[in-house]
Design brief:
By secondary structure, the protein is mainly beta. The protein has a domain at 12-50. It has strands at residues 12-23, 29-37, 43-49, 61-62. Strands 3-2-1-4 form a four-stranded mixed β-sheet, with no helix packed on it. A hairpin with a 5-residue loop joins strand 1 and strand 2.
C-alpha cells in the first residue's frame, strides 16, 4: 500500500516570475514568483526580494494600490 500523506522536504525552484514589482513597507522591491517542488510537484507563490536596479527597468511595473472610499 502506498502512503500518500508522506512528508516531503520540499526542494523548490522558480518556474515563473511576474513583471510587476511591489514595494514593501521599507521601500524594497518584491516580485511575485511561482515555485514548484522538484520532488513532489507541489506549486506555490512567493514574494521574492529583487535588486532595486529593477525599478529603473522599463519592463517591470510597480504595483500601486488605490484606497477605496467608503
Amino acid at each position: 500500500m502506498k502512503l500518500f500523506n508522506k512528508i516531503c522536504i520540499h526542494d523548490y525552484h522558480i518556474v515563473k516570475t511576474s513583471n510587476v514589482l511591489q514595494l514593501d513597507d521599507m521601500g524594497y522591491p518584491l516580485m511575485l514568483c511561482m515555485i514548484k517542488c522538484k520532488k513532489c510537484g507541489r506549486t506555490d507563490q512567493i514574494w521574492a526580494d529583487v535588486p532595486k536596479s529593477l525599478l529603473d527597468d522599463d519592463y517591470y511595473k510597480v504595483l500601486k494600490w488605490k484606497h477605496m472610499e467608503k
